[in-house]
Each structure stands twice: as C-alpha cells, then as structure tokens.
Q: What sequence folds into this?
C-alpha cells in the first residue's frame, strides 16, 4: 500500500434498522478517501471482472461483456450481474436479482476530494437475518482493498 493512499473510513448505518436486526430495507454505507482521481476509480469499477480482486465475498469470478451481459459465480452458484455506469456522475452500480422481480446490490460513487483525489462511497443492502456488524466489517475490508487496487493500477 502506498503511503497516503488511504485516509479515512466512515460508516453510516441506515436509520431504519429494526431493534432486533431484522428487516430488508436496511443499508450500510461507508466511504474511504484515496489519492486517486475519481475518473480513475470509476474506470476500474466499470470493469466488473475486477470485482473478485477487491470484493471476494461478493464474487469468485465475473465474466461476460457489456453487450452480452455479465455472469458472476460465488461458491459455485452463478448469477446474472447488471452493471450500470455513469461516467459523468461517477457512479457504478452492481445489481442482481435478490428476490423475484426485485433488484439490489452495491451502489458506488467516486466523489472529487477537495485539492485532489477522491472519496469512494459504497452502499450495500443488509440481507434479512444478516449481522450488521459483519456486513460493516466486510464493507470496510472491501473499500480498503478497492482503494489499494486503484492506487496500484493508477500508480
């Protein structure tokens, strides 16, 4: 890891968490600062084949292309992955069917940091019955790995 490539990680739990930890409308949002420009972050995120390098809990492999579509495999289970990218807004969303007729996934933003660099923000839904602390820890690890990968690729 390059010095200065990671600056801060913050967590913002959603306000609508149930006291017993149940419910499917909850999210976990965290951010990390990077010395890498937002456009470079989005360029890496726009290639979902890179997901296993920084988010191995989500996918072991990702294959396909923007025209034919993307397929991810996790623990031997294959699923379709829809990737929506807005280079102007600096957003990349990884979406999959989480219930019949319902999509969910990871929502990422690369915001310009004053001076230089970026703030990378990711929001994840908390699956029903999941432990919010485990999801938060996983998200923290994924953002750290993403910031390190982006720095290595851009460096």
A:
């Amino acid at each position: 890891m390059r010095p200065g490539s990671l600056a801060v990680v913050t967590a913002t739990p959603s306000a609508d968490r149930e006291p017993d930890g149940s419910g499917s409308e909850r999210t976990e949002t965290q951010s990390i600062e990077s010395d890498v420009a937002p456009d470079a972050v989005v360029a890496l995120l726009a290639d979902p084949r890179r997901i296993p390098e920084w988010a191995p809990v989500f996918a072991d492999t990702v294959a396909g292309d923007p025209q034919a579509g993307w397929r991810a495999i996790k623990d031997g289970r294959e699923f379709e992955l829809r990737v929506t990218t807005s280079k102007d807004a600096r957003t990349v969303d990884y979406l999959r069917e989480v219930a019949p007729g319902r999509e969910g996934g990871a929502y990422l933003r690369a915001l310009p940091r004053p001076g230089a660099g970026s703030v990378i923000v990711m929001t994840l839904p908390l699956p029903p019955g999941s432990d919010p602390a485990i999801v938060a820890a996983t998200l923290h690890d994924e953002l750290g790995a993403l910031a390190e990968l982006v720095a290595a690729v851009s460096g």
Notes: Strands lie at 9-13, 27-34, 61-65, 69-74, 77-86, 91-99, 102-112, 118-125. The chain has one domain: 9-47+83-154.
